[in-house]
Fold this protein.
Amino acid sequence: MCAHILVAEDNLNQAELVRRYLEHDGHSVVVVHDGRAAIDETRRRNPDLLVLDVMMPLVDGIDVIRAVRTESDVPIVLLTARSTEDDVLLGFDLGADDYITKPFRPRQMVARVRTILRRTGRARETSATVLKVGDLMVDPIRHEVRINDELVSLTPAEFRLLAKMAAQPQRVFTREQLLEDGFITARTVDVHMMKLRRKIERDPRRPERLLTVYGIGYKLV
């Protein structure tokens, strides 16, 4: 299964640990570090699950739950220290789905997340999992491409090409193989590749991701 998960945790090391384990389990993960950002990103991204630290700057986790529950039924898992047990009980009253006490074992956290995703019907089949090539992420379900978590706007044809190549990074695709996706001429493929480079490369004139293999075609690295 896979899901889109928003992690709100102000401790950078803790946030990175959670992100790494959830991504290893096949999920796409976005991390924010304060409560205000958690509310904004929940509204913007409509995640499948929110992992929420109770003690955060700007807006604490309890107030995040209050704000989110006025407009979303997204499952919420609280991360909390033992000293904040009263906050956990309040969190349940406000609509949290589960809580994990710090310090926690990452694999247990992942298992709890899986359970909630199954129970709430938010899990997706792994056959439609997010494709990752370095810091480039292609999401076939949401039809989104992100680089370093920044959304990249692509046309349907550009997305189709990039998704095909992201499913098999390092593979060299001939123009004929890419023409199978509905493009009329080899020149059409070349034009879309040029446009893709403008959107995903730091310097389209010196591509680092979408490379030409002269005499053959293209590969994504």
Remarks:
- The chain has a mean pLDDT of 86.
- Residues 205 and 216 are 19 Å apart (CA to CA).
- DSSP finds eight helices and twelve strands in the chain.
- The helical segments are 12-24, 35-45, 61-69, 85-94, 106-120, 156-166, 175-179, 186-200.
